[in-house]
Write a structure and sequence with these properties.
The structure holds two protein chains of two kinds.
Chain A: E1 5-7, E2 10-13, E3 19-24, E4 31-37, E5 43-50, E6 53-56, E7 65-69, E8 75-79, E9 88-95, E10 103-104, E11 108-112
Parallel strand pairs in A: 2-11
Antiparallel strand pairs in A: 1-3, 3-8, 4-5, 4-9, 5-6, 7-8, 9-10, 9-11
Chain B: E1 4-6, E2 11-14, E3 19-25, E4 30-38, E5 45-51, E6 54-58, E7 61-66, E8 71-76, E9 85-93, E10 102-103, E11 107-112
Parallel strand pairs in B: 2-11
Antiparallel strand pairs in B: 1-3, 3-8, 4-5, 4-9, 6-7, 7-8, 9-10, 9-11
The chains are: A mainly beta, B mainly beta.
Chain lengths: ~110, ~110
């Protein structure tokens, strides 16, 4: 069974550009989470989908971040326009239930120059 | 003050040693306690999951929770070079699911053959 896959693994962009990160959760997992780790800091929650619906986006830093989950399958996280402080590793995780085990992807490393 | 404090290390031990990894926390609402292992350039994977206080053992790993002291530990017996990784503690309250999880910054462990 395939795990959580994320693309790209690493993206280097300039300030002001746009980047879209993609996450494919484990098949059948209704719950999808995005987290972010900024260098030297802890992993922090960004938002939570149940199927295609956003359940909680309280962790999203600002309106430059837009997340979608098309048809309750894969999810995208777009940053537009990117700022220097957006650099970090963006993790996606999925779970069959809200309290079940979280399965993390390998992360998408974003570097904004 | 951070809600969860974790010594970043690095911690270097000889193969076969007993390793003790620890986190302290300040939020008394935390009831679920987790330890994740993260290899370099990979996503976190769940190692141990404990509810409330007490001990839990799984093979060479033992998780301890002392809620009165707001202190959790992960012990690794007979440590192996393959245990070299970053260990993240994480915790959350009963309600709210994984959007309410708080991670430690992680302790980097190196087991020397």
């Amino acid at each position: 069974e395939a795990g959580v896959t994320q693309f790209p693994s690493h993206s280097v962009i300039e300030k002001g550009q746009t980047v879209t990160l993609r996450c494919d959760p484990i098949s059948g997992h209704d719950n999808l989470y995005w987290y972010r780790r900024v260098m030297g800091k802890e992993i922090k929650f960004l938002l939570h989908f149940v199927k295609e619906s956003k359940q909680d986006e309280s962790g999203m830093p600002n309106n430059r971040f837009l997340a979608e989950r098309t048809g309750g399958t894969y999810s995208t996280l777009k940053v537009q326009p990117a700022e220097l402080e957006d650099s970090g590793v963006y993790f996606c995780a999925s779970s069959p239930r809200t309290t079940g085990e979280l399965f993390f992807g390998e992360g998408s490393r974003l570097t904004v120059l | 003050q951070k809600e969860v404090e974790q010594d970043p290390g690095p911690l270097s031990v000889p193969e076969g040693a007993i390793v003790s990894l620890n986190c302290t926390y300040s939020n008394s609402a935390f009831q679920y306690f987790m330890w994740y292992r993260q290899y370099s350039r990979k996503g976190p994977e769940l190692l141990m999951y404990t509810y409330s206080s007490g001990n839990k053992e799984d093979g060479r790993f033992t998780a301890q929770v002392d809620k009165s002291s707001k202190y959790i530990s992960l012990f690794i017996r007979d440590s192996q070079p393959s245990d070299s990784a970053t260990y993240l503690c994480a915790m959350r309250p009963v309600s709210g699911g994984y959007q309410k999880v708080t991670f430690g910054t992680g302790t980097k462990l190196q087991v020397i053959p």
